[in-house]
Amino acid sequence: MAGCYLVVLLASVCAIDGRYGIIPDSMVLALAAGGALQTYLWGSADVWSRGLEATLVFAAAALFRACYRWLRGHDGLGFGDVKFVAAGTLWIGVEGIPGLLLIAVVSALASLLILRSEGHELDRKQAISFGPHLAIGLWWIWVLGQQAA
């Protein structure tokens, strides 16, 4: 049941972020609520400690976003992406975040290579929707975690 909830939610995030370039707060809230409920029902971790992990991930991602903007003069990561990663922490825990980010970055690079091979001109300030790539990473890490359990 949790897998169905998660895949429908992630597909919605992909569709909306891919088309409009935003991840709505309502979807981030639904992601966080589902992750907290899954943690509580499955007893895989203490909900409070998972919440603390999500808070720390949010702070680290927000700091990364701010530093990037300060250094480069433009945003490199949307605030919806920051909130998405924090909410995803409730599903996979802080130990799953490196894998999620690795999969998301590789997916985004593959996407850029495909766009480039099709003749699209890409520059350093061109925005791409990162939400779909984060969704792929979250899904794979959650599934792999379920296989190990």
Walk me through this protein's architecture.
The protein is mainly α and 149 residues long. The chain has one domain. Helices cover 78% and strands 0% of the residues. It has six helices and no strands.
- Uncertain stretches: none
Cα separation of the termini: 16 Å
What would the principal axes of the Cα set say about the shape?
globular
Rg result = 15 Å
Instruction: Tell me the β content.
Output: under 5%
Structural class: mainly alpha
Largest sheet report: none
Report mean pLDDT, rounded to a whole number: 90
Report the strand count. Answer: 0
Count of discrete alpha- or pi-helical segments spanning 4 or more residues:
6
How would the blueprint of this fold be written?
Layout (H helix, E strand, L loop, with lengths): L1 H19 L4 H18 L4 H26 L6 H14 L4 H21 L13 H18 L1
Helix pairs in contact: 1-2, 1-6, 2-4, 3-4, 4-6, 5-6
Protein name: Prepilin type IV endopeptidase peptidase domain-containing protein
GO biological process, one term: signal peptide processing
InterPro entries: Peptidase_A24A_bac, Prepilin_IV_endopep_pep, Prepilin_peptidase/N-MTase
